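U., I forgot to send this yesterday:
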Amino acid sequence: MPQHLSGSLRVLHVLAPASEGGLERVVAMLSERQGRERAHVAAVLSPDTGDEHPFIRALEAADIPVTRVVVGPRSYLREYRLLGTLVARLQPRIVHTHGYRSDVIGGAAARAHGVPTVSTVHGFTGGGKRNRLNETIQCLALRRADAVVAVSRPLVERLTRAGVSREKIRWIPNGFVPPGSTNTRAVARRMLGIADDVTVAGWVGRLSREKGADVMLNALALSDPSWRLSMIGDGRERGQLARQAADLGIGDRVVWHGGVTNAGALMTAFDAFVLSSRTEGTPIALFEAMHARVPIVATQVGGVPDVVTSEHAILVPSERPVAIAEALAELKRDPAAAKRRSDQARERLLQGFSAQSWVDTIEEVYRIVCA
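Result:
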């Protein structure tokens, strides 16, 4: 068991939260396990976000202290100063950053006040020139961190190639905190407006290119027409994806639910969960599907193969909608095998990704950095 850090305030988590996603859920789980006496969260927000941000509401409901750092989209110097003032006031033993912006600005503010920094790298999205430039800047900042937590094996290799010292990198897959209660299939379907007799694949994530929602739509178009698709999540590609569905002639088979708070509790509504990502860290939505015993179809990207094998899910190559369609057909063809994989997936989750083991490992990193 790691030696917990001394002092009334031990860790300041810094992030710029999206409305809801895997990174936000990881920070919420970690800070809630650490408790209000050992964790404080600095959330960098835009002026139009307001007080109704779901991430903030969830932390406050869990009695975790949160400081809102409200800045404009390019107010980097102001953000640096505000975070520096917060670090000076709270005097944490560790500043733990999450995400590109926080790694760069939050990490610099912490080091300016002599506070050690740990960063969790949840994944890289790739994409256009601007994203690639941001990721290059992020990796330069990560070279200065005292420790870097990579949530998947491919991220370890990527960070090493980017010049981050291998001695600083720790491979620590995300942990999972089971929900306090799980909705029955009937209740979850009622909450999502899904009829009892419909065969539905669920897709949960940010509507951006790296998550492969377009691949999922192409797969649905190639699938048995009895399959319907529930898309949970929002993002900048929502309109483009809706047009794609219409062009493919599947607009009436897709329901766009938008962002849904606590979407993991609704996984039981689905006959299949599909993760069609082009890149991933260790996806929390995958954990939630495993916990709900939903048959899983997932692309073999990022940390996914660290979590599930062919014993737990049907794994397919990235960018292969035909493979996803074939996997959905296989689920219908052999429901007994699908149930067997789902039961083994839940067992794998509970045995291999416990929250306490995960938090203990993170805190061991804190202890080493402070020493």
